[in-house]
Amino acid sequence: MAPKKEMEVVKGLDVERYMGRWYEIASFPSFFQPKNGVDTRATYTLNSDGTIHVLNETWSDGKRDSIEGTAYKADPKSDEAKLKVKFYVPPFLPIIPVTGDYWVLYIDDDYQYALIGQPSRKYLWILSRKTHLEDEIYNQLVQKAAEEGYDVSKLHKTPQHDPPPESDGASTDNKGIWWIKSLFGK
């Protein structure tokens, strides 16, 4: 099998425009997300030191699960949108840092939808500023992922409700519990 070519990533990403809430339209299932998660989203906020605060949320069995982390440019001198994201596990006892790649493979001119991947091609996300994405745009992003060497048959659409749930219900937050459950495949 021939080695896969290096993925093309966005150059000159306007980080400030990228900040805000993004809804997960589809992704490759991963062990660190609940299998029955719905309304999954990420909210990015620029920190004063130039890093990015990451809040990932999902709802499973009617309860909010979340994890917070930090993103930063993998190479501060590069104009490529290759970021590193660091979370601490387990989230409720932050001692072990886990760092992953977050590469912006595509973003539209208006910063309304994006394709996110990483070099091993084990993870893939289609994100949108809205809870739903037009089929034509979705299919274009899937095609772009295929062109970058992803097995798009593994894509799983994420159920999103409209309007999306509020995230202020701390009493329903299972912060950290989902991480332990994910280790056991729940």
Major sheet characteristics: 8 strands, antiparallel, barrel
The CATH architecture category equals Beta Barrel
Radius of gyration: 16 Å
Count helical runs: 3
CATH top level assignment = Mainly Beta
Helix proportion range: 10-25%
How are strands sequenced across the largest beta sheet?
A: 1-2-3-4-5-6-7-8
Written overview of the protein:
InterPro entries: Calycin (IPR012674), Lipocalin_ApoD (IPR022271), Lipocalin_bac (IPR002446), Lipocalin_Blc-like_dom (IPR047202), Lipocalin_CS (IPR022272), Lipocln_cytosolic_FA-bd_dom (IPR000566). It comes from Coffea arabica (Arabian coffee). One of its GO terms (cellular component) is cytoplasm. This is Temperature-induced lipocalin-1. Belongs to the calycin superfamily. Lipocalin family. The structure is a single chain. By secondary structure, the protein is mostly beta strands. It has a single domain, classed as Lipocalin (Beta Barrel), CATH 2.40.128.20. It has an eight-stranded antiparallel β-barrel. The chain is globular and about 40 Å long.
